[in-house]
Amino acid sequence: MRNQQLPLAKAVKWKGCVLTYGHFSTIHPGHIRYLRHARSLGDQLVVALIGDHNGNFAFSQQERGEALNLLGIADGVLMLQSDELDDAIHKLQPSMLVLGNEYKDSPLIQDTLDLQRKLGGSVQFHAGDVQYATTDLLKKSERDLLQRRKCDFHAACKRQGLGQQQLLAATKEWSSTRLIVLGDTIVDQYAACEAFGMSAEAPVIVVRELKQRDFIGGAAVVAAHIQALGAKCDLVSVVGNDNTAQLVKQELKRKSIGDALTIDPSRPTTFKKRYMVENQKLFRVSRLEQHNLDAEIENKVINNLERLAPNAQGIVVSDFVYGVVTPRILQVVERLSKTHNLLLFGDLQCSSQVGSVTRFQNFSLLCPNEREARLALQDKESGLEHLSQRLLQETNSERLVMKVGTEGFIAYDGSNEGKIINQPFPALSVNPLDVAGAGDSLLALLATGLASGQELMPSAALACCMASLAVETMGNTPISADSLRKTVLEVMQA
User: Fold this and answer.
1) Which residues in the chain are classed under CATH 3.40.1190.20?
2) CB-based contacts of 65: which residues, under 8 Å, 6+ apart?
3) Yes or no: is domain 147-185+216-270+284-493 CATH 3.40.1190.20?
4) 27 vs 463, higher pLDDT
């Protein structure tokens, strides 16, 4: 049954409900978590939707109400004329008022909270359960989920005024763009194995290695993606004095990527080997060093950056926290950005390492995932919207792409007159083959698009398609502009 949108005068039928409140200008995964939690607290959930009184919302109240209805979570939407939450509480006498954590310490809402408690209701502050995985495949078929996400993608493009031809045309404007990629170079080896079973001597899985294949990863694959998209790219990184480094050099030459590698005899080239049976990864073995560069190696990296900067439009920092992106090098990057008017793009990955994306200050774009943002800000309770806004403020970044795993990502653009607009984009792949490297492909396309002079939202839509391609193959395979265009056609026509 379709949910109802009613004005306050006709909302008596919802008396005693669970009540939530907000403007819901653009609904993203954080809002959905919040609403699902509120729905679990009672028999009826009503959303009190702020009206259009201040005119600062991207969409009208009617449009926002329809979007809430389409979620199918709330039983009704209460259409407020302004933000008269007190009147709604008087009328509905909700059993519980559920607000986001950002309201917890706000003095502006204390009288409203007192009123709710005076009328016998309770108050809960909650941002929705934080989760980094999905259970959607337990509820719906893969085909249904894929269709829903394509519909979400179409809706996002429609909200941003993006059409198929505009996206296709954008992919042809990158050839004159040149970027520098700075960061940790990794070689990923995938070993395909046959499972024999358990050892008779100990509870150990026994496999026989059948075949192996090497892929360049880390900052190197970001550079490879950029080059495959049609832009030009130079890789500034550090490798060891070993055969793995020679493999990297050969791949860079084969892909026509500028080689600005520095040899550091004190560390091996970072190498990760994954053992797999069929498409299932069993475990990973890493060979690496994580100490910061010594002064001599650091100077060589800086010299390479200073040599390449005058001919580039931007610097992409892909930091895996293995010691290449030192504080001093980061200072040089910021100086070169000001001197040569370069855009800065940053991604810091801390899955098994310790790092903080807040070390990237004054960047044009940051691309953390939710877990990395929460670790950086030491914040496990705030809603996703509050978390993203706080990260933008603390880093003084112009733009932010907050990756939320299987739910996709949210693009925040604050480059226009200081007003931040946001737009969620779904993950177009429902059952990915290999998620390693999806973030690298996302970073590569966003940097390429923005450095070529394009706006964030069309670049984000293309990056959404790019990431879906990246997870369809095992290992880091650079995505070409032709492959991207084919995917755009398939998704937009679906």
Assistant:
1) 147-185+216-270+284-493
2) 5, 49, 77, 79
3) yes
4) 463
Residue-by-residue DSSP string for 47-63:
EEE--STT---SS-HHH
- Res 138: pLDDT: 43
Query: What's the longest Cα–Cα distance across the chain?
Result: 76
Q: For the chain, where do the domains classified as CATH 3.40.50.620 start and end?
A: 4-129
d(CA 159, CA 156): 5
User: Which of 414, 319, 310 has the alpha carbon at shortest distance from 358?
Assistant: 319
Region at 386 (left for phi over 0; alpha for psi -120 to 50; beta for the rest): alpha
Q: Is the dihedral of CA 59, 63, 65, 68 positive or negative?
A: negative
Partner residues linked to 191 by β-bridges? 212, 275
Among all chains, which residue has been given the structure tokens 């603390």?
Answer: 394
The domain 4-129 having CATH identifier 3.40.30.10: the answer here is: no
pLDDT in tens, 391-444: 999 999 999 999 998 889 999 998 666 678 889 999 998 788 888 889 999 999
Euclidean distance between CA atoms 363 and 396, whole angstroms: 7
Instruction: Let me know: does 462 contact 488? Beta carbons within 8 Å.
Output: yes
So what's the pLDDT on residue 2? 46
pLDDT digits (tens, 9 = 90+) for 45-94: 999 999 987 656 767 888 888 888 878 888 889 999 888 899 999 989 99
**Nearest partner of 230 among 184, 278, 175, judged by Cα:** 175
* Contact in structure between 186 and 455 (CB atoms under 8 Å): no
